[in-house]
Amino acid sequence: MSSPGTRSFIREFLILVGAFQRNSLVATLAALGMILGAAYSLWLYNRAVSGNLKPNFLHKFSDPNGREVSIFIPLFVRGATVR
């Protein structure tokens, strides 16, 4: 899913313009697929972030323990130094 003003949006738009010049039916189907994909992504994000939480399942999740933190620290350090 690309948002207007981003590089991926410009790429998708230019691809669709080129596709419309060649075959408008295929380009229309591609545009419809992109729109449905974006709508599904937004629906899924909304459901995952603010969906119905069932309190009886929340006790199964806990804060990361020491072993998990020691695994993720090198990944965070690596990610910070790559930039």
From TrEMBL:
One GO MF term: NADH dehydrogenase (ubiquinone) activity
Domain of life assignment: Eukaryota
Keywords: Membrane, Transmembrane, Transmembrane helix, Ubiquinone
Ranges annotated as spanning the membrane: 25-45
Example of a GO biological process term: ATP synthesis coupled electron transport
Keyword Transmembrane: yes
Enzyme Commission code(s) on record: 7.1.1.2
Annotated protein name in UniProt: NADH-ubiquinone oxidoreductase chain 4
Lineage: Eukaryota, Viridiplantae, Streptophyta, Embryophyta, Tracheophyta
